[in-house]
Specification:
Layout (H helix, E strand, L loop, with lengths): L12 H9 L1 H9 L8 H17 L6 H4 L1 H9 L8 H10 L2 H7 L2 E10 L6 E10 L4 E8 L14 H11 L2 H7 L3 E8 L26 H14 L3 H10 L6 E6 L2 H21 L11 H4 L14
Parallel strand pairs: 3-4
Antiparallel strand pairs: 1-2, 2-3, 4-5
Bound molecules: iron/sulfur cluster.
């Protein structure tokens, strides 16, 4: 039996998710404290969050200040200066009608921190907006994905389900705004844009960085196309040809499936608490399929047991 591990004051989604994925991974990460080194993907994710936080708050984003740390980190991965990164995204956001509709709603919170009623689960929500006309609150999560999955049909994951639970556990918020519906969604800021490193099929960022089109050339081309094209699909075709992925926004009403997901998260939370109270929970067996993708694969000895 494991000894008692101190239970954290609050439990985040990533804790529950890691625990749900593999108890041993949880132990390595949160109890033994093995820290994973940041990679390019994580760095792009941090950039997306920082940029959006400043932008939604109405601040002018000076990337040389806000993103200096990330630029330095990316330089270590061999990704050169991304000075145009924010100009490009801002241009895309400002011409994206869906995003502008979101910005016309009431912003209830940016990096909004919430707890569940039992004060166990904790979450920080990227953006919460409220549409006064439809009385709909939407929980937004920022992504920086290169995946095609985000362009169309997107499965909303357990993290947003948990956030829904946290909102629903805050009756004051619900009553103050007379919320009638809750939606969940993603705003995807692609890292795969003009002048950015390419993302290979393997999911890795390419070290072969081709500057296909500069920001200025891109804007000029868009303006020219907008004069010429009546059809947005033709424009999307242009982006595709140039291997550019636009900002993507996906949202959906909270479904039965999401409710099942957050029940599941709750159950896992109780297992996690039990584990911290000394109950041995190691039914995990080593699975080649899962383990080879695990960031702890090289240090995990479970496969040798
Ligand atoms: S390698 Fe497998 S058993 Fe080991 S921590 Fe990762 S998922 Fe768990």
């Amino acid at each position: 039996m494991e000894s008692n591990y101190r239970l954290p004051d609050t439990i985040s989604y990533s804790r529950v998710n890691t625990f749900q994925d593999c108890y041993y991974k949880y132990k390595l990460s949160y109890i033994n404290g093995f820290k994973l080194e940041s990679n390019e993907h994580m760095t792009f994710g941090t950039m997306a969050h920082k940029l959006m936080e400043e932008y939604v708050k109405g601040d002018d984003v000076d990337t040389t200040v806000v993103l200096q740390e990330e630029f330095d980190a990316l330089a270590k991965f061999g990704i050169p200066s991304l000075e145009d990164y924010w100009s490009f995204l801002k241009f895309e956001l400002e011409r994206n009608e869906e995003f502008q509709n979101i910005m016309n709603q009431v912003v209830i919170g940016v990096e909004l921190e919430l707890h569940d009623l039992e004060n166990h689960l904790h979450g920080k929500i990227d953006l919460v907006t409220f549409d006064e006309e439809t009385k709909t609150l939407t929980i937004w999560d920022y992504k920086a994905s290169a995946s095609d999955k985000l362009i169309g049909d997107l499965e909303i994951d357990g993290q947003l389900s948990l956030y829904t639970l946290l909102i629903a556990n805050n009756p004051k918020l619900v009553e103050d705004h007379k919320i009638e519906n809750i939606r969940i969604g993603y705003i995807n800021l692609p890292k795969f844009i003009m002048g950015q490193p390419e993302v290979l099929k393997s999911g890795k960022l390419s070290k072969n960085k081709k500057q296909k089109v500069s920001y200025d050339d891109y804007v000029a081309k868009i303006e020219e196309l907008e004069q010429e094209l009546s059809d947005y699909s033709e424009f999307l075709e242009y982006l595709k040809e140039n291997e550019v992925k636009p900002v993507t926004i996906v949202s959906q009403d909270v479904s039965e499936q999401d409710i099942i997901k957050f029940r599941d998260i709750h159950n896992q939370m109780y297992s996690l608490i039990a584990y911290h109270h000394g109950h041995d929970l190691f039914p995990e067996s080593y699975s080649q399929f899962k383990c080879q993708k695990c960031p702890y694969y090289s240090i995990c000895k479970k496969g040798e047991e």
